[in-house]
Write a structure and sequence with these properties.
By secondary structure, the chain is of the alpha/beta class. It is 36% helix and 17% strand. It is built from 7 helices and 6 strands. The chain has a 6-stranded parallel β-sheet, with helices on both faces. The chain is globular.
């Protein structure tokens, strides 16, 4: 089975500058849940890699985050899919951890826990950090324009962007469009 890595906020669900703090704040982007199930039915093992500094900031606790992740898993299961694992970094940006994207600790954990190499796998995200982490692990970076995606696309077009070969990054309007294009019809 091929491995597929997804960012969470801005890719699967609506993002918020005020953070997704509870189940009521967590709203799937239209088509994203069906897209995950479609990837699963096509033989992909789906894992999520997400920065969640709201934990360290005290905006929500582990129980709140686990409730959000359970809702996500349940919705995907209702559509016939399965999420193999949700991996998160709870640290603040300035803590210097190795798991906060663009660092690769989350991706290394996915690779180790699922026993599948990430090299060549799709990594779908909406931020420059997602794309940088993907490149660092030799994944195929895919940008969606939901969440921070349009802002990231503008960064990629800037001359001073900190990523190699930005023209080789595939871009889709959203996760549903990515699934449509990447999964054999």
């Amino acid at each position: 089975m091929a491995l597929l890595i997804l960012d969470r906020d801005g890719v699967i669900n609506q993002d918020s500058d005020d953070y997704i703090r509870c189940v009521e704040d967590w709203l799937p982007i239209p088509g994203s849940i069906k897209a995950i199930a479609r990837f699963c039915r096509a033989g992909y093992t789906v894992a999520i890699a997400t920065n969640q500094s709201g934990l360290s900031r005290g905006y929500f606790d582990l129980d709140d985050m686990e409730a959000i992740h359970q809702k996500l898993r349940d919705l995907v299961a209702e559509q016939g899919g399965h999420i193999a694992g949700i991996f998160y970094c709870p640290h603040l940006p300035d803590e210097g951890c190795d798991c906060r994207k663009p660092a690769t600790g989350l991706l290394q954990a996915i690779e180790a826990e699922l026993g599948q190499p990430l090299a060549g796998s799709y990594f779908i995200g909406d931020s420059l950090k997602d794309l940088q982490a993907a490149r660092a692990m030799q994944c195929q970076p895919v940008l969606v324009l939901t969440g921070k995606g349009e802002q990231t696309q503008a960064q990629l077009q800037a001359a001073d962007v900190a990523i190699t070969d930005p023209e080789t990054i595939t871009i889709y309007p959203d996760l549903a469009a990515a699934a449509q294009a990447l999964v054999e019809p």
